[in-house]
Amino acid sequence: MVTMRLSDTQRLLAPKAAPLSDVTQVMRRLHVDGPLLVGLLLICGFGLFILYSAVGESNRLLTNQVIRLSVAFTAMFIVAQLPPDFMRRWTPWGYLAGLVLLVLVLTKGDVGQGARRWLDIGIRFQPSEAMKLAVPMMTAWYLHDRQIPPKLRHLAAIAVMIIVPTLLIAKQPDLGTALLIAASGVIVILLAGISFKLIAGLGVAAVPGAFLLWNFMKDYQKQRVLTLLNPDSDPLGAGYNIIQSKIAIGSGGLFGKGWTNGSQAHLEFLPERDTDFIFAVLGEEFGLLGVLTLLALYMFVIGRGLYIAVQARDTFSRLLAGSISLTFMVYVFVNTAMVTGLIPVVGVPLPLVSFGGTSMVTLMAGFGILMSIHSHRKLLPH
Amino acid sequence: MSSLLSPIKDVHSERRLFLARVVLATVISVVLLGVVVARLVQLQVVNHELFAEKAQGNRVRIEPVPPIRGLVFDRKGRVIAENLPAYQLELIPEQVADIDDTLNRLAAINLIEFEDIERFKELSRSGPRFKPVTLKFRLTEQEIANFAIQRPRFPGIDFQPRLVRHYPDGPEVAHAVGYVGALSTEDLQRLDPSAYAGTSHTGKTGVESSFESDLHGDVGFRHLITNARGRQVPSDTSELLDSLPVDQTPMPGSNVYLSIDLDLQKIATKALEGRRGALVALDPWTGEILALVSTPSFDPNLFAVGMTTSQYGELRDNPDRPLFNRALRGAYPPGSTIKPMLALAALETGATNLTRKTLCRGYFTLPNDPHRYRDWKPEGHGSVDLHDAIEQSCDVYFYEISVDIGIDAMHDYLDRFGLGTPTGIDVLGESAGLVPSREWKRKAFSDRDNQRWYHGETVIASIGQGFMLATPLQLASAVGTLATRGKRFRPHMVAAVEDALTGERRMIRPERLPDVEISNDFYWDSVLGAMHDVMQGTRGTARAVGLGAPYEMAGKSGTAQVVSIAQDEEYDEQELRERLRDHALFVAFAPFDEPRIAVALIVENGESGSGVAAPIARSIMDAYLGYGDDAP
Catalytic: which of B124, B210, B336, B477? Predict the structure, then answer.
């Protein structure tokens, strides 16, 4: 109820606030953050260019991706209209529903490519995608009413909130998503001001955790880790992806071979070039210049997200916005580091650029949350 | 509501803490992305050249271009082996949805055989998916027409033009020129795989095999732009072609001229038609093979084109063994054909002289041994000297002098004529034959009884029976040595090798072998005179054959007992009787004074050397000397 009243106040106060340009005003009413939107549109536009080349100049596949982007942007816009307080109140229920769906996936989900990730209830979707937002929201919700930095027992509760869905997803198996979800939860804890002593302690505890994880991993996942350590040991097998993507990127040089002129990509040497390895296509065709441009756009979006987090007025919004922005950063880092052969090949797409729709909707919904947090700010001086 | 449940929150300190953490996170983010950027600089700037080279190496594939195989001609320049464009049926695995079903339907319209389906399935699984599998090497026009109508029903099946080895006179030259067949894994262990990249066939027997290095030529190569699966990318999509290294055109194989005379070859084949036999004719002054025939023969085109399993089975299991080259590999008891050589040995060693006479009563006995060694003529030849013994082929005379010559001297002289060792002809696979000796027997057997040499064995060796074996090629070479009075030349089939591009010819020079030295020329006169009378004397065994010839000739008949029939071979009773008959042999040369051709032949189970084999030798000599009906 408090929310409603504050909202009204905001609406009443808006015209009297500092003079705003017409555009800003319209954006504000639509609950859209201008800089963030521009950054996202630039990334997606550049992404479409790269994708067109990566899918072999297929107009059909490009149209497909444009449709997915439209759906994702629509999702972002809708989410942006929901006030943060409203979201916070529904968070526990959403999280619980997500857990139930994850259990359902494991028992009666559809199998695709050796993993059980899909659930068909009228529409087919991956509950793990919903969890990418539900986990940081839940942890932020939990800390909203509690003392910051959190006490140890609260941390224990949060740990359970993170570990349960992570394990359920790792069991599907979908190691990439599981790690990202765990990261999004851990980021909330870190932003909440947990002491560095504790972080160090957790770091030490992570060592046995890593061993536990190793046992959880499927053979192909273990192979990926081993291959990273020495990709040339198996040049035609598991190391092939990394070797070919390094060749693609390296041969691109400073300025690249030119759009649609990448021989690695177009002569099919580069595997998964339209999905996880699309960054290599960018590196080959647009060179270091193109790669730095895209990374700069990402940094801009992440920076804007962190600015929104800092500007946020309550704990929930603050932690959630920070987590969403930094998780996005993790996405970018994991994908680019993997394609350049710095870390093992985990199935993480290059956000907003890789072909495929499921994760795109989740990502854009996350940016919708950021916009909502920023545009629903109380403009009262504090 | 919530504030009641939790301790009072210090909003300001919380914001400060959060801000600090965000700053920290930003720093970490920048560091992490900085690592990625550093990595990108390493890949794209520092190591750019290396990766650029690797990318280039990735897409350029070197494809071998097979050379065109050299042609084979006879001594008069007539084609024996050529390359003809032919359409072959191919299956491209990646374009065929259901390989099983497609092959079955192809078999149903008789383009392939059902029993080969498994083999083709295996082939289409083993190679790259885009690489065509040849189902049939040569389609007849009828088959092309038939398939053309049905083509829409067979996606991924097509016919392609290729060069296929072709032997216009197939069966008539098969054992002389040999044949090519599909390159096998075993071939590649013998040959240099890189030189044969792209080559589909290789010589398997005969000249095709022995002169493979001349005929094959040198492989060329060209550069292709390919994708990751090795498939060629249409060149219009890549402007990179210009930057490729220069292609190398293949060097066609050399043409080979045989000393074979196609006419003689055909006449001999015709004369031996329906028989199991072999004939070798050569020029005694050079060793050039003029004809080399083994019957029954086979069509070498079947190997070049590819046979169905049943076709090959039929050839392989045929009891007449058409694939067996009797002229080179058939080792037969030479029978009386060796008598002229033994006569020279006897004269030279003093075991006999030109006036010594023996009374032939139709049999011979060794002292203290009741066993009768029979003459072919039961009533005997009466009183015979060496000339008569050769002319009438008296066995008893030779039985008698054999004891005086002794087996080791016999071995020594026959060895000088080249019997018992491979002639060294320029094609592979000849057998050595066998001329027994004491030493040989000691080595050949393990038990003491068999290691001993018995007098009786010397006796039967003197008429070319017992252990003694010779190939038609060896006999032809030996009779050629008689014709030249001891001058020997290594038999060879290839007269010249011609560079296909420049036309430059490398002539193969006759290779002189050590002479057979006979101290007295008069011995030659006597023995060769007796051989002359075999064909043109009053009592010669083959005088009917030499009758009315416009030139003079010399010869010697031979009849060899069939020693045994291999136990695993099955014949019906009538056939068994046929196959137990004696082999008929004949050796001859002409013209008598200036020999130009020497012939040796065998007709398996032909019974009479002078009656069955001699007329064939005559027809060959007639033809070669220009007196035949179908003389060249």
Answer: B336
The mean pLDDT value of chain B amounts to 84
Nearest to A250 among B32, B44, B56 (CB): B44
Based on the structure, what is the number of domains in chain B?
2
CA dihedral A304→A308→A310→A311, nearest 10 degrees, is 130
B chain contacts of residue A329, beta-carbon cutoff 8 Å: 29, 32-33
Distance, in Å, from the CA atom of A249 to the CA atom of A287, rounded to the nearest integer, reads: 7
B85 and B177 housed in the same domain: yes
Q: What is the CATH number of the domain that holds B550?
A: 3.40.710.10
Residues B187 and B325 grouped into a single domain: no
Say if residue B609 is exposed, middle or buried (CB neighbours under 10 Å; 0-12, 13-18, 19+): buried
Note if the pTM is more than 0.80.
no
B-contacting residues in A 268-327 (Cβ below 8 Å)? 268-269, 283-284, 287-288, 291-292, 295, 298-299, 302-303, 306, 309-310, 315, 318-319, 322, 326
- Out of A247, A253, A326, closest to residue B25 by CB: A326
Q: Which of A148, A244, A291 sits opposite B40 (nearest CB)?
A: A291
Same domain, B249 and B282: no
pLDDT tens by residue, B419-438: 999 999 998 889 998 899 88
Same domain, B200 and B108: yes
Kindly report, residue by residue over A189-240, the tens digit of the pLDDT. Answer: 889 888 888 888 877 877 787 787 777 777 777 776 666 555 555 555 556 7
Place of tokens 């996606």: B155
Question: Hey, where are the domains in chain A?
Answer: 31-375
Q: Dump pLDDT digits (tens) for A89-120.
A: 999 999 999 999 999 888 877 766 666 677 77
Q: Which residues of A touch B14 (CB under 8 A)?
A: 148, 193, 315
Q: Quick check: is B132 in a domain?
A: yes
* Residues spanned by the domain of B553: 262-625
Residue pair B461/B407 in contact by the 8 Å Cβ criterion: yes
Q: Is B209 a catalytic residue?
A: no
Choose among B255, B224, B211: nearest CA to B503: B255
Q: Is B456 inside any structural domain?
A: yes
Residues B245-301: tens digit of each pLDDT: 667 788 899 999 999 999 999 999 998 888 899 999 999 999 999 999 998 999 998
Closest chain A C-alpha to B162 CA, distance in angstroms? 29
- Pair B279, B291: CB distance under 8 Å: yes
Residue B370 has pLDDT above 90, yes or no: no
Q: Do B286 and B189 lie in a common domain?
A: no
| pLDDT (tens digit per residue) in B342-356 | 899 888 888 888 888
pLDDT value, residue B306: 79
ipTM score for this prediction? 0.87
What does the alpha-carbon distance between residue A178 and residue A183 come to, in Å, rounded to a whole number? 8
Which residues in B235-340 belong to E strands, given as ranges? Answer: 255-258, 277-282, 289-295
